[in-house]
Amino acid sequence: MKKYIIAAIILLNFTACDWIGNSPSFGDDFITYTIQAGNHEIDNNFNAPFTGSSIKFQALFDSSCVYKSAIPENQNDINKLYGFSDCSSQHQSNSARFGWNWREGALRIYAYTYVNGQRQDKELGTAELNETTSFKIEARDNSYVFTYQGIETVMPRHCSGGVGIAYKLLPYFGGDEVAPQEIRIKIRNI
Length: 190
Known about the structure:
43% strand, mainly beta
């Protein structure tokens, strides 16, 4: 009888908790991240700890990711998709993540890093709206290896070895401007 009471208490505790971060979209196994109009960050932003040496995921962009910046040159600003901080430092010191923007009629994908406080980026290709696309970032000794559309792109890294004390970096809109409309991006870890 005690086993049943303990099980019931544990079950009650799980059902009484609020979800931390974005809630899963139970129609599929993606998590939908939403950035409200006028914001940079996703709803319920929570940067979970990251302990691996690589991150592999799939993302799906829909028509909400087609936007026009208020200031034309800001259309070149790179929005952030997903990645991790590195070298036991804040992400604007050392990090690796994929970036994106809508420019010249296409959703463009970038390798986006901070290496000892210096931002670096490289365009990797385009993604189709409403199609699942695969991404991978691997931290190696003194480099990050970004894999997109089966092509590896190597970017410099400030430290070597493990990532140390690190956290995941979730979707973020901007540069200089906030989201001009609600932006929705679906991500599934693989």
